[in-house]
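BUG: 3D viewer hangs when loading the predicted structure for this chain

Environment: internal workstation, default settings.
Expected: structure renders.
Actual: progress bar stalls at 90%.

Input used:
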Amino acid sequence: MSTAPTVYDVAERAGVSIATVSRVYRSPDTVRAGTRDRVLAAARDLGYVPSGNARGLASRSTGVLGLCFPDYSDPDAEAADAEDEDAAMLYSDQIIRGMERAARRHGYALLIAASLKGGPESLVATVAGRVDGFAVMARTVPTAELEVISRRQPVVMLAGPREGGERLDHLDHIEVANREGQRELTHHLLADHHLRRLAYVGSAEESPDVEARFRGFQDACREAGAPVPDAPDLRVAMMTQAEGARAADALCDRAGPLPEALVFANDQLAVGALHALERRGLKVPDDVVVTGFDGITLGRLVRPTLTTVRQPMLRMGEAAADLLVSRLNGTHTGAPESQMLPVTLARRSSCGCGE
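Structure tokens produced before the viewer hung:
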């Protein structure tokens, strides 16, 4: 591996002082936009990552792994089940728990950056300079930025396919079988319950996961000879219970017959829909079937229990830590790896199967 670029190299490339480079990373608002952009461009070109502390000048080892994650907290879920801590354990919480568990097993601590406030540049700089390697959720940080960081330390992308193939994306990836899971769930509704009028509810800004789930929904409809929609029946602003309730109300208020099944892109949306349908006096699954995706604990506690696709959220976090450590200790070398973790269908009461 070549000698790591230093703050002196960045300063020389950008034509500024070392103090200015430091201010760009420590207090970016104090630096004029043009100068800041020039420094960040020089850092990208050189593959420079700011050190998190003085130890980084002598050794790159910090004994810490990082996880970059947007804040997906759902106040509705947390407030509704405050007496049961596990009930509010959402997708992100499970991944964090799995990664922390595996990191500790390997003798590492875990640093979590759970917000994008300040922009992706500051997020990358803050985390990468303080850890030995890190995992990042797909579309949290531009892949081009991660490619720069990966020259100096291992980076694992979570829940997203390789972008542009090997030509553009040289990162390790860990995904789950979203498309296959949604296809199996939709096939269950079509073939086992003989439903035909299915409404799919996705998100306004599709994540790679949700995109794959909708493709799986289309696959199952096509295979069953059912109508294949070009787009979700409804898109929501956020994947929360409140948005799920609004989506259920909107679909119920549309002209024409009520859909036989509401297929939601995640469990939080589906749980919100269950509450809204109950308020309207509609029975699930007698009047309408409801399904989700993820397998969060809350889905087992609501009534009726939620039919969903369980993805291995804990295992995803564990796999990320395991892969990072194997890269760091040299036991795993070579080309970027893509791991696909399996999912399982949970047939419960909200589709009529009971549990």
